[in-house]
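Appendix B: a complete holo record

For completeness, this appendix reproduces one full record from the ligand-bound portion of the collection. The bound molecule is flavin-adenine dinucleotide. The inputs are the chain sequence and the ligand SMILES; the output is the full three-dimensional arrangement of the complex, encoded as structure tokens. No fields have been trimmed.
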Amino acid sequence: MSTAQSWNRLPRVSPKAVHTLTNRQETLPDTLPTPYLAHGNGRSYGDVCLTETGSLLMTRGLDRFIDFDPVQGIVRCEPGVTLGEVLALVVPHGWFLASTPGTKCATVGGSIANDVHGKNHHDVGSFGHHVRAFELWRSDGSVIECRPGQNGDWFRATIGGLGLTGLIRWAEIQLMPVQNPWMWVQSQRFSNLDEFWVLNREAETNWPYTVAWIDCLAKGKARGRGILLSGQHAAAQTNLPAVKTGEKRVPFDPPFSLVNGLSLRAFNTLYYRQPVKPQGGLTHYAPYFYPLDAIQDWNRIYGRKGFYQYQCVIPPEDAEEATAALLDTIAKHGEGSFLAVLKTFGSKPSLGMLSFPRPGTTLALDFPNRGDKTLRLLSELDVIVKEAGGALYPGKDARMSGELFQSGYPEWQTFSEYIDPNFSSRFWQRVTQ
Ligand SMILES: Cc1cc2nc3c(=O)[nH]c(=O)nc-3n(C[C@H](O)[C@H](O)[C@H](O)COP(=O)(O)OP(=O)(O)OC[C@H]3O[C@@H](n4cnc5c(N)ncnc54)[C@H](O)[C@@H]3O)c2cc1C
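The structure of the chain with flavin-adenine dinucleotide bound, as generated:
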């Protein structure tokens, strides 16, 4: 049985069948077991892109551009086109994705289905805000063209709809204008969480892109120390630096995780002490937006057992207290993450019924899978998130309880009415049954 994985390599489950789509009009074979589930490029962490009871519809073969208007900055393409392929087409014409996650390997279909967000959420909202239209195929053979003002309820259900409303067959995206492929980026060190809140508030009023990396192992007065990166697209100018290319690869699966207490502490300390650029400097968009894409298969460093990503959002009123409690709990367990990312979302309401982005603070961390020990820590974090009225990101989840999902996504029952009866995922079965 061929299989497909999500990025964190767990859970390890096999679908009943895998069907590769290459023609967006094709009829599915009658013999294909249901429920179906689209699988983009497997860059989700967890089981929103996995099934063990039905068939995965692999969409990477649906990779054609249908139209590109270089004057208006509108691109229409099939869902398996990656964000990197969109950028390769549009950046030379002076356009950029208005919202992009931290990997350019995500597909357009996957980016809609998880309503992904980027470092500029406080400025432009999430990916769904820039989707002009898409076509949804339903398993009864019907096709629904959706726009914000046409079949708007289907639009709201499918943006952030975790692939459950049917198969997106094409999508039209509004791009944003840029002068060149470069970013102007400033970095500032902060020595604890209190300093972060002050710096971040100021940065968000002046910069379209902000994100902080924090040392999640630091305790006491240093709790939450880190580096704040603020960026904007570079202005038009001559004498731009030459672009350095080249990717590295993790060449094999180590039998155990290379991420342990020692390597984590060393990495976090070194990263915190790196030279910063408070005056700013030019950086190409690729290392700025997609630093991890430069190391192919970096997920292998966690070994064969894989890892959990934990991403939560906490409403603004409780954000400072709950973020401190989350960091204290992580430091107490001595478990930690190479890259703990802290960012505040803006107030623009998400369009999707199940969209994760909402006003508040989001913290994202990776934890090597050490079995029950890791699961106990994550359950403690869940209690803090739930008490603060927060939510976890389904696109980065392999273990949240149904109770936590349902409290974080109060529209889930309304959403259920739009699910295609022949589509489901392991995630959905886990959090609703
Ligand atoms: C290094 C890294 C950094 C990341 N940074 C961020 C970030 O900053 N912000 C963020 O929001 N996310 C981030 N992510 C998560 C990633 O962007 C999302 O999980 C994204 O949805 C993955 O897209 P994919 O094409 O791989 O889809 P998959 O993971 O394969 O699938 C995701 C969902 O999309 C559905 N789907 C896929 N194609 C279709 C289709 N044609 N029709 C209907 N449904 C479909 C699937 O059923 C599934 O529910 C990051 C991931 C990585 C690996």
